[in-house]
Amino acid sequence: MNGRSLGKKKKAPFEYRLRWDDVVYEPGELKAIAYKNGAWWAEEVVKTTGGATQLRASADRIEIKADGKDLSFITVKTTDQDALTVPRSDNLIEFSIAGPGEIAGTDNGNPMDMVDFPSLSRNAFNGLALVIVRSKNGEGGVITVTAKSAGLREAKIQIRSK
Question: Is the pTM above the cut of 0.90?
């Protein structure tokens, strides 16, 4: 935590997770390092964020087939001024599209959210939302997806349909 070791722990037989119950929250950086057979194996870092200031979009694929079936899954993150995902944000995000594609659905991973998948707006859940774009059959070109939320800088991303 913030450069200080909180100690190493080793799992006992039939133990599936490790816990540090005496750690008191403080802002900054928390880094977890995993070891396997005594050697570094993996690491994960989380940082305290500021308030949400912008949306950021990234696509699993930026090129799709113009067959009316191919999809691109676009993740929209609510981020702070340092581009860190703000994990507790639940901003309402509105999606729009221009070009030879259509929004096939939206989601956020929240099992309690009963908004229909075809909705063009969705609240972020833990700072995340998803918009799924489908190509139009036989129509190639650039598809532009825009995500907007009140008080935040919008995000735009382009997908090419070929």
Answer: no
pLDDT > 90? residue 66: yes
Decide which of 91 and 12 is more confident.
91
Q: How far apart are CA 114 and CA 111, in angstroms?
A: 8
Pick the CATH number of 54-161 from 1.10.3720.10, 3.50.50.60, 2.60.120.330, 2.60.40.10: 2.60.40.10
Q: pLDDT by residue (tens digit) across 131-162?
A: 999 999 999 999 999 999 999 999 999 999 99
- Residue spans of the domains in the chain: they are 1-48, 54-161
pLDDT at 11 over 90: no
- Which residues lie below 8 Å from residue 31, measured CB to CB, with a gap of 6+? 1, 43, 44, 45
